[in-house]
Amino acid sequence: MTYSGRVTVGGSADVHELKDLMITKVAVGPMNNNAYLLRCRATDEQLLIDAANDADTLLGTIGDDGIASVVTTHRHGDHWQALAQVVAATGARTHAGREDAEGIPVPTDVLVDDGDTIRVGRVELTARHLVGHTPGSIALVYDDPHGHPHVFTGDCLFPGGVGNTHKDPEAFAALIHDVETKIFDVLPDETWVYPGHGNDTTLGAERPQLPEWRARGW
């Protein structure tokens, strides 16, 4: 089956099969949050990005092999509603951006800074600190050695714009700057984008809109 990145709450997961990594996307909760289960194909170790909601669905997706780690992309409550239950059931180590950890009511084992490496088995992900949606939001970049990069953006980048900065011009300026310099300026158009809500996109599809986003201020 071809991966589309289109999932619905209560519907089936969608699986993106790469040579070294399997990415399972599932939608959960009343705000249609995306959660992503990453599985190293060499070791079968797993990592979850955003235990957003519906612990039963997430644990069913994780399966009997469990997870070694769970990464929370940012402190907003819709991205960690199931975190305590998932950690209790799996014993996973928790990761979050250093500036957001205090806003997440589950202790963070690993405070993540810009450029840090997070591993799942033999696969390496690079954290990018993106300021503006929250003080400590992080994106995770997987630079696939067999193909194009993949980036998990939380709520910092979506099809059609950056994340909500609540009409705060300083927050928007910070976020658009970080998204441009740490994502668009260093990754190619083929980069696949996995956002915190809704459908996937690519940097190439979004890049032509950057001037429009800057001009409108959101």
Automatic annotation (TrEMBL):
Protein's name according to its UniProt entry: MBL fold metallo-hydrolase
Gene3D superfamilies: Ribonuclease Z/Hydroxyacylglutathione hydrolase-like
Family matches, as Pfam families: Lactamase_B
Domain Metallo-beta-lactamase: 32-197
InterPro entries: MBL_Glyoxalase_II (IPR051453), Metallo-B-lactamas (IPR001279), RibonucZ/Hydroxyglut_hydro (IPR036866)
Superkingdom of origin: Bacteria
